[in-house]
TrEMBL record:
Alphabetized PROSITE patterns for the sequence: C_TYPE_LECTIN_2 (PS50041)
Protein's name in the database: C-type lectin domain-containing protein
Pfam families: Lectin_C
Species name: Elysia crispata
Keyword hit for Membrane: no
Transmembrane segments: none
rRNA-binding recorded as keyword: no
Signal peptide: 1-18
Alphabetically ordered keywords of this record: Signal
Highest classification ranks of the organism: Eukaryota, Metazoa, Spiralia, Lophotrochozoa, Mollusca
SMART domains per record: CLECT (SM00034)
Length: 181
């Protein structure tokens, strides 16, 4: 039993301290590569993703943190990318809580806009057909989070602590940043 525990520890340590692979070094912002453990950075279809799974922020603060290094919150605009982000979050990082993504409906509750200001075309919103009939949700749920357990996106209050307490929901979430090359 003891050799198995030691082996597991050595594998985990080697992954956590691994040098960034060539894709990460060539695709992700150099400042980010030198400051972040490469274990939390991945490249998918030429785009760099930073899985921030060891910190929780409100939506606005998560968005600012991504922009600080020239990125945005992740924008899973395709089913393939959504599945990748969801699977990596759950199976690679062990995340079971929702993560902020770069999608909002703040300006007009019937129109969802990505962090790059493009209107949402493809979506994976849970209960999307009920969104227009949910007058209460329209008042407070303006930001979107990805649930890695089912891959669906859920409307969530962005920053309102009062609503958070009333609904029993935690507005500080992990998040995924996206950096285009």
């Amino acid at each position: 039993m003891r050799p198995l525990i030691i082996s597991y520890f050595l594998v985990a340590w080697s992954i956590a301290t691994a040098a960034p692979n060539a894709n990460v070094q060539n695709t992700c912002p150099p400042r980010l590569v030198s400051a972040i453990n490469p274990f939390y950075m991945q490249v998918f279809n030429g785009t760099c993703f930073h899985f921030v799974v060891n910190d929780r922020k409100m939506y606005r603060d998560a968005s600012i943190a991504c922009r600080k290094d020239g990125g945005t919150l992740a924008m899973p605009k395709t089913e393939t990318l959504n599945r990748y982000l969801s699977n990596q979050s759950l199976h690679y990082y062990g995340v079971v809580d929702e993560l902020w993504i770069g999608l909002r409906d703040h300006e007009d509750d019937s129109t969802f806009i990505w962090a790059d200001q493009e209107q949402m075309v493809w979506h994976h919103l849970a209960n999307y057909q009920d969104h227009d009939n949910d007058w209460f949700g329209k008042l407070i749920e303006d930001c979107v989070a990805l649930d890695p357990l089912d891959g669906f996106w859920y409307d969530s209050p962005c920053n309102n602590q009062l609503w958070s307490a009333a609904l029993g929901s935690d507005l500080q979430k992990m998040y995924i940043c996206q950096y285009s090359s």
